[in-house]
Predict the structure of Methyltransferase.
Amino acid sequence: MTSTLDPITGATAPDPAEIEAFAARAVGDAATWMVTTMTMLGDRLGLWRAMADSRPVTAVELAAATGTDERYVREWLSSMTAHGYLTHSPESARFTLPPAHVPVLAVESPAHIGGLHQALFGLTGILGAVLDSFRYGGGVPMSAYPTDWWQGLERFSAGWFDYLLPQVWLPALPDLHETLRRGADVADVGCGRGRALIRLAEQFPAGRYVGFDVHPESIEAARAAALAAGVGDRVRFECRDVSGELPGDYDVITTFDVIHDAADPLGMLRAIRAALRPDGRYLCLDINASHRLEDNAGPVAAYFYGVSVLFCMTTSLADGGAGLGTCGFPEHTAREMCARAGFGTVRRVEMENPFNILYEITA
């Protein structure tokens, strides 16, 4: 159907078929939000974990196993079945979590996204503050974010540190691996709840490890986790802003999805460069995006920009910072800023990952 002129404005009126097609897409997107919300509830209530054995279960049985109300559970099961997350037998009135869905929804694994759902659950609590930032500028400080956000981030990134770091990333970095094996002084900037350093300390016990973060609650959780893991003798954590100066000097410095969040990303890179020993290595993980908006298309990129509004950009702006945003430190910008910070080489590590880029950076 050809476009027509709007009789009131004189502008070209959109094709009704195009309106219908986009309306269908928008409704589908809204349905996806609803499914994500239901999935978050399943994670929060332990419903997925209770179905991890992939045995068919009724709503009554699942409610009894999880201490929840049967009527709500039955409606939740229906929602998840309608979206294809579960299968249903009309004859037995039983629901099954397919085996291929178990690692994604129900158990800890490299594919598990329960932490992502918990983090998104946490973000719902700061939407009002984000609306105010749209209206008046500024941003939402880290102190405003609830525990679910921080715990969810730790759970979501657990796959990096429990699987990818020891099994994929370090084997691709033989010189760095050997430095760690011999026993290195290691600093993790923006360490969060400490999982990366704890895993490194377990794998390379000859090293000495320190993590820095500006979020007090995360540092407290990191200290407790290090003691629980039995590595408190070689791992310590400090609540400190190191964007101006990183105390000490190190063989290895790491940042995992931190630079694009920083209030002063260039200052942080310069501090890392100053604290890196002459033969040291800086391992930088950041977002796999382009500096060209037209290249950042599709669901993953849309998710990146959304998280930027809800956390990455707004927390930086809350501190009067650069507000790079989630997609604000792509390879083009990373190379440019690292050169300005005084680094000599920036090597992109070869790996297949739609979410992140890993760099090995040296003086």
Q: What stands out?
A: The CA atoms of residues 36 and 88 lie 20 Å apart. The first helix runs from residue 16 to 45.
